[in-house]
Write a structure and sequence with these properties.
Elements lengths: L2 H7 L5 H16 L7 E6 L16 H6 L1 E6 L2 E8 L5
Parallel strand pairs: 1-2
Antiparallel strand pairs: 2-3
Length: 87
């Protein structure tokens, strides 16, 4: 199974991680941290289906308070998705 299919079929597995990241950001703000946090994932297996990726639904809560970037691990300069345009 490629990474894209994993994210699409197992999105609910990331819900607890999204919630923990949001709580971490809340705590950081309480202690005075004012930077925008960023999560970067590097996928190890990329299959190009020439279609729209569903990364826009990945870590929805964290994307409201931080930035999510997904890269190709084999080509770290290749950004597959970035939520920076939402900022």
């Amino acid at each position: 199974m490629d990474d894209q299919a994993f994210f699409s079929r197992h999105m609910e597995a990331w819900v607890p991680i999204d919630e923990h990241l949001c709580r971490l950001v809340d705590w950081l703000r309480l202690v005075g941290y004012r930077h925008i946090p960023e999560v970067e994932l590097q996928l190890t297996m990329i299959v190009d289906h020439h279609g729209e990726r569903t990364f826009t639904k990945f870590l929805p809560g964290f994307r409201e308070v931080g930035i999510v970037t997904i890269k190709d691990a084999a080509h770290p300069d290749r950004v597959l998705y970035s939520s920076t345009h939402n900022r």
